[in-house]
Structure to design on (584 residues):
């Protein structure tokens, strides 16, 4: 297992972690400068943040700082109430893949979507099996294009509490079953983004991480589970502040062959997004060394 | 599949559903009178509610009304920081079993517990594997006594969002693995309480319900998953108001041989607990017929 205690070479910052500072949205170019100032070697930016500043400008800035990507957030949201909606989703995923290619990302993270409309409180249908079928077909179609351009897709199993509105793939086992079905040759073009927040509770986690192996483990995200958790989406904890056995799980991931970045992704409307970016980044670095 | 549309013979009311009315706690004897007035044939009461009125008094009242039990809430919470704490939990479960026996319950529902202390925001340890081991041992010990007195134990897999603080058994598969380990003969003394709120998202739900079979399906709880869900514990929805395919899942449960009560368990600090018990009960009955 790698020693993280001496430096933060393998720390990546998911830019959602610092997208709000003192409660206000901060543009991505400013976030990148802050990361550079803290010696952060990699980030994982969100599409809306990139679009707000401009893809080429962000690309140039990253190159100038020598900052790489640990992933690109995000594709997915495949299910839709009708054929037109399904096509819109596929087109959008194609654009996400193109953007990731421009930025030199190692993978596009897929938050696959749940019941269409549920995110707005009005599900168009309630058939979870249908949504999962549409996810299957959407990934299959996107994978064709991803293979053409050489951009791996990383399915992110989301916590079951987000099954209705954000992603109906909710266990690592389920994600790997889909990978095996769509990419049985393990070409490296389809795998998983393993976010510890979503999967830490799973009794089959160790077993399924071993099953995934290095071919399927395309990204690894960390934060912590707080007790109590006051919000289903935006109350994630800083590593070390919650109950997740971070070091144990990283051991499993590294035993399976993963040797990439440990990406910090903290949605925290109630705490970290109220603080300064400097404080959040400094704490991420300290906890990367002491807790991850 | 049974036809529920003509009556509510197979409706049970978990008394948590109406324990607060207009925001205020209502004693169990009053709740039982309300259920009787609505022609409810079965309830599932909570230990603290029973204790507040008195076990014998509740027993007499239930008999007078001809109201049966669909379960008794609850045993469990086995993990503890030390040997003394583990023993306290075993003693408490023994008392729960005795009370259930007095009331003629078909089973004691087990909310097995998570990381000890996490419910108060201060986990004594973070080793989920240890907690699961203590749950295993706690159920094994309680099962010995349950067998002696003839009171089945029903493990309730809780939603993964409650893994840290309330129950570290979080899938039906995991619960059934434990049943098979501790009661391989399927004596009927160990099974599961299947609450649709906790398991509706599970891609293996249909498969595992079939695996459970009538020997393991000791109780069936319904409510609905709301979008958005505003609280991890107390924002459950009335059947029909959320996204769960209630009828499909009841079909699976009945195909597996379950022919008991459909028990309504709604924790709803934000909605139903603010209304009158009459309105909540009348709505449960209507939805039992139209949505369950």
């Amino acid at each position: 297992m790698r020693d993280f205690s001496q430096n933060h070479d393998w720390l990546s910052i998911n830019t959602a972690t610092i997208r709000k500072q003192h409660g206000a949205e901060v543009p991505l170019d400013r976030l990148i400068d802050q990361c550079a100032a803290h010696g952060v070697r990699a980030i994982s930016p969100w599409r809306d943040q990139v679009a707000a500043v401009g893809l080429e400008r962000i690309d140039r800035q990253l190159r100038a700082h020598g900052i790489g990507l640990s992933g690109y957030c995000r594709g997915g949201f495949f299910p839709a109430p009708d054929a037109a909606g399904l096509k819109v989703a596929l087109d959008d995923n194609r654009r996400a893949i193109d953007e990731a290619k421009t930025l030199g990302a190692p993978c596009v993270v897929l938050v696959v979507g749940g019941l269409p409309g549920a995110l707005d409180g009005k599900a168009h249908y309630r058939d979870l099996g249908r949504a999962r079928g549409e996810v299957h077909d959407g990934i299959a179609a996107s994978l064709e294009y991803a293979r053409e351009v050489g951009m791996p897709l990383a399915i992110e199993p989301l916590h079951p509490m987000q099954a209705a509105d954000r992603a109906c793939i909710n266990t690592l086992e389920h994600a790997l079953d889909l990978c095996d079905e769509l990419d049985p040759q393990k070409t490296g073009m389809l795998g998983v983004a393993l976010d510890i927040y979503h999967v830490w509770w799973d009794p089959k986690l160790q077993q399924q991480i071993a099953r995934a192996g290095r071919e399927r483990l395309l990204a690894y995200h960390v934060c912590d589970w707080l007790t109590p958790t006051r919000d289903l989406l935006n109350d994630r904890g800083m590593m070390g502040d919650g109950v997740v056995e971070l070091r144990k799980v990283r051991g499993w991931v590294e035993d399976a062959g993963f040797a990439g970045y440990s990406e910090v992704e903290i949605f925290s409307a109630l705490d970290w997004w109220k603080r300064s970016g400097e404080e959040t980044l400094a704490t991420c670095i300290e906890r990367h060394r002491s807790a991850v």
About this structure: The first strand of chain B starts at residue 11 and ends at 14. Chain B has ten helices and eleven strands. The mean pLDDT of chain B is 98.
